[in-house]
Design brief:
With 258 residues, this protein is mainly α. Helices cover 49% and strands 4% of the residues. The chain has nine helices and three strands, in the order αβββαααααααα. It has a three-stranded antiparallel sheet with strand order 1-2-3, with no helix packed on it. α5 crosses α6, α6 packs parallel to α8 and α7 runs parallel beside α9. It is elongated, with a radius of gyration of 22 Å. It starts with 6 loop residues before the first helix and ends with a helix.
Length: 258
């Protein structure tokens, strides 16, 4: 039955993927480490990422002895470079250590104001539009396309509560079990009833009513996730994601019928 689709299938359909670019075509960011002064602080780069499945993050909270160089002019930046070099304004290769929140100038948290995302997204896309970079070198145009894809992924992920919830957990080193199938008897029974209601809906008015209920449930479990995430109760946060995933699936089925 469609609504019992394993999470692995649903997540592969919804989670953004990073475009593949052969490494032989582009330069990687050039990193430079200088000796750090003796310190008793435990705030080392490795302590930031322990079990993360993401590249090491060197954003605003990174150690001051870390630097990245522009691939053209060699300018040294103390923070991770996103989009362009501060000195020569050359478009830079994608740095995977720059997370999606950094791209949009947001604090790394689940509760964000999504109302300003679209404006920032359009601003980045204008700067990366092919018409504006057509006179650049082939290499720099390649970086612009790569950066544009990264911005699209970031916008799509942060603008959708379910994808944003999965993303912030992954930044914490917590992965939703992508091979897990629906096993909660209560949720299983509820989803079956909803599915039957969708199939038996006589008209668009009934479908809209069911869709409204799904939105309420998604809102409820989104708030539940937010509370669990703030308390760092990742087990409960994962449970909220499972609920959101299946309610979102119901909503997709309704949209197909409308």
């Amino acid at each position: 039955m469609k609504l019992w689709t394993p999470l692995s299938t649903i997540l592969r359909r919804t989670l953004p993927s990073i475009p593949y670019f052969p490494t032989s075509q582009f330069h990687s960011p050039t990193y430079n480490f200088s000796p750090s002064p003796p310190s008793s602080s435990t705030n080392s780069p490795n302590s930031l990422t322990h079990n993360f499945h993401f590249p090491l993050s060197f954003c605003s909270g990174s150690p001051e002895n870390f630097h990245v160089r522009c691939w053209t002019c060699g300018h040294v930046a103390k923070a991770a470079l996103f989009l362009v070099c501060d000195s020569c304004r050359t478009i830079q290769p994608v740095d995977q250590s720059v997370d999606y929140f950094h791209i949009f100038g947001l604090e790394r948290k689940f509760d964000i104001g999504v109302e300003n995302l679209e404006g920032k997204y359009k601003e980045w896309q204008k700067k990366l539009h092919p018409d504006l970079v057509h006179s650049k070198s082939e290499e720099e145009r390649g970086y612009a396309a790569e950066q544009s894809g990264r911005v699209i992924d970031a916008y799509r992920t942060l603008s959708k509560p379910l994808l944003r919830a999965i993303y912030v957990l992954r930044l914490e080193g917590v992965d939703v079990d992508e091979e897990e199938t629906l096993s909660d008897p209560e949720l299983l029974s509820e989803i079956l009833e909803i599915r039957e209601a969708v199939e038996e809906a006589a008209d668009s008015q009934e479908l809209n009513q069911i869709q409204s209920q799904m939105r309420e449930k998604l809102s409820h479990w989104s708030n539940s996730f937010a509370n669990a995430y703030r308390c760092r109760n990742f087990e409960e946060a994962q449970n909220s994601i499972r609920r959101m995933t299946y309610y979102e699936r119901v909503n997709e089925e309704i949209v197909k019928k409308l």
